[in-house]
Amino acid sequence: MAEAEAHSIVIVGGGICGLATALALHRKGIASLVLEKSRSLRADGAGIGVHANGWRVLEQLGVASELRETAHLITVYHDVWQQGDRTSREKVPVRTELRCLNRKDLIEALAKDIPAGMIRFGCRIAAIDADPSSHGAVLTMADGTTMKAKVLIGCEGTYSVVAKYLGLSPVRTIPRAVLRGFTWFPHGHSFENEFLRLRVGDFFIGRLTITDNLVHFFITMPKPPTGIHPHGQPGPFLRNNECLPDDVMNEPADVSTKDLKKVRDVALKEMQDVECPAEIIDIVRDSDPESLNFVTEFWYRPPWEVIFGSFQKGTVTVAGDAMHAMGPFIGQGGSAGLEDAVVLARSLARAVDDADGAGKDAPASARETMIGKAIGEYIRERRPRVALLSLESFIMGALLVRSPSPVTKLACVAVLILLGSKSLRHAYYDCGRL
Ligand SMILES: Cc1cc2nc3c(=O)[nH]c(=O)nc-3n(C[C@H](O)[C@H](O)[C@H](O)COP(=O)(O)OP(=O)(O)OC[C@H]3O[C@@H](n4cnc5c(N)ncnc54)[C@H](O)[C@@H]3O)c2cc1C
């Protein structure tokens, strides 16, 4: 039988966190291999809000200035609550750096400095087993081929095979239908550089300015439109026509542009029924169909699992949503994954230096022990941070979608005050230099 291909560091998943981790390692002079199941870079979800903590990471990775050129600073949260004839408004200044990036720009900026050959597309990991000859793992691809990894980092998001190997429970879901997309204004728009958050009827709508010509929107719908579930499967649909067939972990199936337009039509009709402002209806109606993305669930790992979960087995670990999926409630999932990348690369680089310092004659097992310890350090550093973010997002989600009793509501608000949620304390975090 042919020998399995072997690599030092393998990263599963070429999303925000996987690419940031590969780039961070590359900046430290360490090679890795990213395995991505899609046939090309994927960037589902149109826009992504990146707060100051995420920008600090992008600076460490050397991609902040080019990305700042692509998106204006958002200076105001503009909250509007429309109930029948009454409309209340509040404008709160954003005191830290917040920009809404086109996910595609972010993904491409992270990928472009990763050397050719370090990202392998069309490579879906189906299973992970322990490697009896090392502290690492053996990966089995969907096509049956295998690969050995001395260090394995699972960055493959919510349906993580690596997280399963580590013994973590599957992520939990909250049913919630969200349509996202971009609208292009060829002659410019007249909106402020703001994050508009509008409640009207049972809709929660967001509009974020990206440039003078581009706007990102999301619409949280009361219920998903019926009759557009491909394969009759319930669950979220992620738009990416270039993905390989989903046959392994009951993952969400893709939804076609035709179905996305149907979702948009249903949303438009319902928005008209609740007398949503015409300006918002126009944005949704004129949106670019190719940019549309629709999910029917939010994924999260409860905070207690983040606090107590096992994130390491030998030299195998997880980062990004695979470790701490937290839903969109505080807009920190992506930035937290960026922070993971810097902390993990820093810890691994220190271990590689120590191992190199021990000399060529040092046994391989000593090197592996040093790398294992470095991964332990990474987890110790990240756990309190991501536990607090997960807790804040969980509580915010409970307030927004679960209609808690008055007592629970009071307790939730008290915890959010302690966490400094209103002043975005989480965005002031600095995960340090690479
Ligand atoms: C509606 C919504 C709005 C959001 N808004 C924000 C926001 O404003 N700001 C913010 O910071 N966060 C936001 N988030 C969260 C953010 O999108 C995620 O936290 C972030 O995308 C996670 O990045 P990741 O790289 O860990 O995982 P992913 O982005 O899920 O990337 C995983 C990658 O792994 C690949 N993959 C999966 N399985 C396999 C496999 N078996 N083998 C090989 N490859 C595999 C996938 O194709 C994908 O490319 C939002 C989330 C939602 C749902």
From TrEMBL:
The keyword Membrane applies. It comes from Miscanthus lutarioriparius. It comes from the Eukaryota. InterPro entries: FAD-bd, FAD/NAD-bd_sf, MOase. Residues 9-169, 308-364 form the FAD-binding domain. This is FAD-binding domain-containing protein. Keywords: Membrane, Monooxygenase, Oxidoreductase, Transmembrane, Transmembrane helix. The chain crosses the membrane at residues 6-25.
